[in-house]
Design brief:
This protein is α/β, with parallel strands linked by helices. The chain has 11 helices and 10 strands.
């Protein structure tokens, strides 16, 4: 698989990144460790050598699963993880990083990201200058190779960038959720910052498997996703009907079409999770899909049946 430069760093990442929120199990239903490990390894075998996790995914369980899947090929893999919003004071950043290093059984983290801005979810307000000071020191020590942020607005990204090199922004971004295009994307393009799109399949909607009568299993957080609710969900079903027609003409599964569209957007790579090995293989193969300009326009128009009617709230969930 081709690789791309991560921001201005020397790190090369894949256009499709293996996502592992589900590997933590917390807030998901029906996740089995053995299947998750097989999925991560199947993605790696398809050329997806970049994997994204976080300390908060199952309180470190996801990070430990990443090690179980890729520990024997660590030198060939790129690990990205995140420090949560409740650990952004100077000393806490070091403690969180060392926990993640232990969970991942590694001496270094390739990309270390601020998961949510300080103050999110009632967490303490910590100046981003203080957090960046800790991250810069970790980078100087060789514990991390690059710094990224997640769920930051353009204003927050610009502030963080005053205190050190930011190589990535991780926002929710898909055919059905495009707030980043109006906010931070122009800044990222101008400043060479990679966009790592999460929920790139709109938490499964863009697989085409969720019909109008779908009901989530107990414990699955997705019932709080705004795209699964009310008028937005009705528009999603209209857009999915359009996309099924497009995918039929292209002879491709919907997940590959949605991911192939996304990685053609400026500075953008797509994080895609998978429950099993076959899903991981299918996602990886999106990197091989060649869409024409006409294809991209049709796919874009289908997505706008949803996004043109959303408000300006950048948070996808009603938590």
């Amino acid at each position: 698989m081709e690789t791309r430069q991560l921001g201005k760093s020397e790190i090369r990442i894949c256009p499709i990144v293996m996502g592992t929120w589900q590997a933590g199990k917390k807030m998901w239903a029906g996740i089995e460790d053995a299947e998750t490990i097989a999925a991560i390894r199947a993605a790696f075998d398809e050329g997806v050598t970049t994997v994204d996790t976080a300390e908060v995914y199952g309180d470190g369980h996801s990070e430990r699963i990443v090690h179980k899947a890729l520990g024997d090929v660590r030198k060939e893999a790129v690990y990205a993880t995140k420090v949560f919003a409740n650990h952004l004071a100077y000393d806490q950043v070091f403690e969180a990083c060392h926990r993640s290093l232990r969970n991942l059984h590694t001496d270094y983290i390739d990309l270390y990201q601020i998961h949510w801005p300080a103050g999110s979810f009632g967490t303490p307000e910590v100046p981003v200058e203080e957090t960046m000071r800790a991250l810069n020191e970790l980078k100087k020590q060789g514990k991390i190779r690059a710094i990224g942020v997640s769920n930051f607005s353009r204003r927050q990204l610009e502030e963080a960038a005053q205190y050190g090199q930011i190589d990535s922004l991780q926002p929710p971004y898909s055919l059905f959720w495009r707030h980043v295009e109006k906010d931070a994307m122009p800044y990222c393009v101008d400043n060479g910052i990679t966009i790592l799109a999460y929920s790139s399949l709109a938490q499964g909607l863009l697989t085409g498997k969720f019909g109008p009568d779908h009901r989530f299993a107990k414990g699955d957080h997705r019932f709080k996703n705004r795209l699964f609710q009310g008028e937005a969900f009705e528009r999603v079903q209209q857009a999915l009907a359009e996309l099924r027609d497009i995918c039929g003409r292209l002879g491709l599964p919907m997940n590959q079409v949605a991911l192939a569209w996304l990685i053609r957007q400026p500075m953008t790579c797509a994080i895609a999770g998978a429950r099993n090995a076959e899903q991981a293989r299918q996602n990886a193969r999106a990197a091989e899909v060649n869409l024409t300009d006409s294809d991209l326009e049709m796919i874009d128009a289908a997505g706008r049946l949803v996004t043109d009617h959303l408000d300006d709230d950048p948070v996808m969930w009603k938590w």
